[in-house]
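task queued by scheduler; priority normal; single chain, no ligands, no partner chains; default sampling; output format set to structure tokens
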Amino acid sequence: MEKGNHKKIYFRSSIDTSLLAEKPEHSWTNILPQRYFNLIDRDIYFTRILENQKKGKAELQKMLDEARKVIFSKEELIYWFHKIKEDSVHEAETILIKHEASLFSEEKDIDFERIGFLIGTYEEAEKFLSIMTAIEPIEDETVHYSILDELEKIDEQFIETDQIPGYYNTQSHPKIKLRTYQLKDLKHDWDEMLKRHIDSEHILEGYGNVAYLLDQYHTEFVWKIYQTKPRENIKAFLDFHYNSFGREKALFLNHIEFRILPRLANITRTSHKLYERLFYEWLSEKREKLTIEEKDFLLKSVMSVCMTFLDNVFEYRKSKSENKYNILIRNFLKHAVNSRNWSVKDQSMGGTTDPATESNTSGIAFRDIIIENENSDHISAIECLRIKSIPKDETTDTIIKNHLVKIFRNEPIGISPLFIIVYCESKSFEETWKKYQTYIEQIDFGKYQSLGIDKEFELETPANLKIVKINHFRSLKNIQVYHLFLNMIP
């Protein structure tokens, strides 16, 4: 991502990795698909591979000393470490392909010692990248924790119901021909591995936990994406598994964006931006729920609801309760979109607040509204807030800015359009409206960067209702946010 002249490199997250943790004595890094290592005898691993990892690590240190003579920037060093990892993987794969072929020939001269050496260089490069990751500033734009919690809950359900592949369309039996884009069945190899090593003194704690098998499917899925050529076929690959997913499709999209894409970064390295663009194009295609005609209908419906609200604003204002304002908007909107079989719901769990307290406080409303289509797909959302004045300085504002950014944080799917309804309680409505437009153009929306007010957007409205459209850039997609400004003191 580039902001001005500053180029920022995004690493994989290090939150769950301790740089102080020591690896068990017999640990090793699987730098290749599991099927290759399943071909290696346990004795060969411990006598010929494991011992040579230390040599690879020592050699990486020497290479680093030499590399520093010609590497002058942090970015160049990062690329160098990734190149070391990539070269290690490619060379180890070549050796293991030769070993796989040797099972059917007289050739037995396999350099397993070199594999151990390559694993060592890979691990040492990974260690330095982990250190560089850990000292990066913590991002305040990470995925909302609720998304990860939901995905982890689904993981648990897959494990409990013995549906380990979970997210993917998988070969039903290793002897049945693998269909295009299917993942191969890893269960047979898993069971065989458990039988071979269950009595070994070298197995680690937690050995046999099926959560590791689920993780292997994730790894296999990532490798299949990386190996798919031409790259345009990756969308068809993703489509195949998306269409096979038997649960709410939004879960699969979140899984791809927030878990698979970061994993893919570990093997695509400097080419990751190419893959990232392709992925976000695909995600946008899947998340686009509304046609142009439906978006126009939705906008007119929200405007109509706001005008209906203003028609009796003197009566509604007596309650001095933001919650009640929002409930009225929600109920009016239910009737407005009923012809489409759409539904309108509260996004929060509900509850009430003290009207006396609310009447003295301008700021974030306590309930917002979500709109779903006839298939219960989330297609839009409305956030509401009350204001009495516009802050002079955007940097000191803790109300309007936080609320406008909140609508993006609460929308992990990345839907468009979104709506902001502002209950303006200023006695100078026109002046406050002008200040509001200027103010929202100054706000730093972070990764939901504002592209500015759409100057070509003009819509005729009554005197006490103003509307403006702001375009935001989010994950290579244009998100439209409509701000509707209601005069509560006409």
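post-processing summary
- The chain has three domains: 2-134, 145-287, 292-487.
- The chain is about 50% helix and 10% strand.
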